Amino acid sequence: MFPDLKITQLRHFVWVTELKGFHAAAEKAHRTQPAISLSIRDLETKLGESLFEKRNVKTAKAELTPFGLYFLPKAKELIKHHDRVAEDMRLLSEHKAGHLRIASVPSIASRVLPELLEEFITHTPDLHVSFFDDNSEAVLKMVETQKVDFGIAHLFHQEEHSDKDFIPIWQDQIGVVCPIDHPLAQKSSLCWEELTSHRLINNGTSRLLEDSDASALLGLSQFYVSNMISLIAMIEAGLGITTLPWYAFPQDSTTLRFIPLAEPQVVRRLGIVLLKNKSLTPPAQAFLDFTIEKMGTL
Question: Which residues pair with 178 in a beta bridge?
Fold first, then answer.
């Protein structure tokens, strides 16, 4: 069986060596000299060898045995490793270091998270962040496979996800997106039936219409485009119109128009998705708490 080497005893050994005596080591450790002597004797018993030569009563100088000389760098190495691990764990518990892994739908990723993350990491300069940007379905898959600590997404059919917790934070309305010169562009709001005579393009958020009166539009779409950049390019080119949540609409666009869908009014709820009964890492829990504090919940 390997000896149970206590870090405190190793420190006492190194201090006695570096400070050239038991008295000085006792002062540094804020212990009595007999206590330091007992600590060293116990360490020697565990190791099965003497670390110090018998002391000269006149000089009280502590001299290492050959075994002690060999063990000294090993003891220092063990102390450094212990202190490094302890420091890493302390920083991790204070979310000042470690690794935060999150995934988000593009709308929140581009509209909300940059400012949130910038403020959060101001207080955690050593924190590493891995960020994944994808649609809700892909975000949920990353949560399920534990590729990320948690995701930010819309939870389609929440009752089907009994293994997950959902904390709703944001919501936006579904609207129609078309070129500014499109016949619908001058409308202040739209009913879903007004869209049936126009070429429709489905996208990853079109599922939001499934349980509404506008579900018939899903079967009328001629195109499906999953990538948002490609979708916007096709709408700008006049290939068709689409429905999008407000957060997903490119706010700086000068070529497109967003018209709220009033009949039916469809609202998307976005929030934090995480696995039930699974603890988050300290950085992930800290960022979750920070997000709720800044954004609130629905």
Answer: 257
pTM for the full model? 0.73
CA distances from 159 to 140, 144, 164, 165, 174 (A): 14, 16, 10, 11, 22
| In the block, residue with structure tokens 């116990």 | 42
Interacting residues of 173 by C-beta distance below 8 A, sequence separation 6+:
245, 246, 260, 261, 265, 266, 267, 268
Q: What is the pLDDT of residue 98?
A: 83
In this prediction, residue 213 has a pLDDT band, given cuts at 50, 70 and 90, of very high
Q: State whether residue 209 is helix, strand or coil.
A: helix
- The answer on pLDDT for 56 being more than 70 is no
Answer yes or no: are the C-beta atoms of 46 and 3 closer than 8 Å: yes
Predicted pLDDT at 93: 81
Rounded to whole angstroms, the Cα distance separating 61 from 19 reads 10
Do strands 201-202 and 223-224 pair parallel, antiparallel, or not at all (unpaired)? parallel
Could you please state the CATH topology (level 3) that the domain comprising 99-169+269-295 is classified under: D-Maltodextrin-Binding Protein; domain 2 (3.40.190)
The rounded distance, in Å, linking the Cα atoms of 262 and 232 is 22
Domain residue limits, the chain: 7-93, 99-169+269-295, 170-268
Label residue 240 left, alpha or beta by phi (over 0 means left) and psi (-120 to 50 means alpha).
left
Instruction: Give the helix ranges, DSSP H, for 94-184.
Output: 106-111, 113-122, 136-144
Cα 207–chain centre separation: 27
Q: What is the pLDDT of residues 252-284, one digit of tens each?
A: 999 999 999 999 999 999 999 999 999 998 899
Lookup: tokens for 290: 């920070």
